[in-house]
């Protein structure tokens, strides 16, 4: 039976290089985990139908590059986004320290009432944890963000994170905090082409 989509939401997945943004999106879309891969170059686009209690919404997911040299490209896609998943790696305290800068960019460029979810990825690597749960909860509380830990490897909380984001956006739309404009649901993908370096292969830092 064909799913009826009531609304489309433009969202961005944001965070430093290597935190697992693309792996999270891939796990959501096709249920697989990419063990190795190159960093996202520019911006990649995916869409996902998310069933909520009384409706289904389409998430238009813009997976942005975390590398500094692509930051200006990534930021161009923050405009009119009504939701964001802000990702750090629980085994990398630098990625957590970078959150304030990413959050500033989101708050400056996204819809003023965009729903932002803080996600600590790589929860399967508990033995290598550098960022404590309470530390992340404190950051989320300080900035009024929802918070989850996920694992793209195991699939832990991946679906839950995008569903929670969709619920949060839908609630703000229904109470008038967010007004969906055409710019919030329409954009064209842009990807910077870069020749891969054969002598510098990286583990999955998508």
TrEMBL record:
Gene Ontology terms, MF aspect: GTP binding; GTPase activity
Main location: membrane
Any one GO CC term of the record: endomembrane system
InterPro entries for this protein: P-loop_NTPase, Rab_GTPases_membrane_traffic, Small_GTP-bd, Small_GTPase
Annotated localization: Endomembrane system
Entries under SMART domains matching the protein: RAB (SM00175), RAN (SM00176), RAS (SM00173), RHO (SM00174)
Name this polypeptide is given: Ras-related protein Rab-4B
Species of the source: Tritrichomonas foetus
Lineage: Eukaryota, Metamonada, Parabasalia, Tritrichomonadida, Tritrichomonadidae
């Amino acid at each position: 039976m064909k799913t009826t989509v009531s609304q489309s939401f433009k969202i961005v997945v944001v965070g430093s290089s290597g935190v697992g943004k693309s792996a999270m999106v891939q796990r959501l879309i096709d249920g697989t985990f990419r063990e190795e891969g190159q960093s996202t170059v520019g911006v990649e686009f995916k869409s996902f139908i998310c069933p909520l209690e009384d409706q289904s919404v389409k998430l238009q997911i813009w997976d942005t590059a975390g590398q500094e040299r692509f930051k200006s490209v990534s930021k161009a896609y923050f405009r009119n986004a009504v939701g964001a998943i802000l990702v750090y790696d629980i085994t990398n305290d630098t990625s957590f320290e970078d959150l304030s800068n990413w959050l500033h960019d989101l708050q400056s460029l996204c819809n003023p009432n965009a729903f932002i979810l803080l996600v600590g990825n790589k929860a399967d690597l508990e033995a290598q944890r550098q960022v404590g749960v309470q530390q992340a909860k404190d950051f989320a509380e300080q900035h009024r963000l929802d918070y989850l830990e996920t694992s793209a490897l195991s699939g832990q909380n991946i679906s839950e994170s995008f569903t929670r984001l969709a619920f949060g956006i839908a609630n703000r739309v229904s109470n008038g905090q967010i007004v969906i404009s055409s710019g919030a649901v329409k954009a064209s993908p842009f990807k910077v082409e870069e020749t891969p370096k054969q002598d510098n292969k990286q583990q999955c830092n998508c």
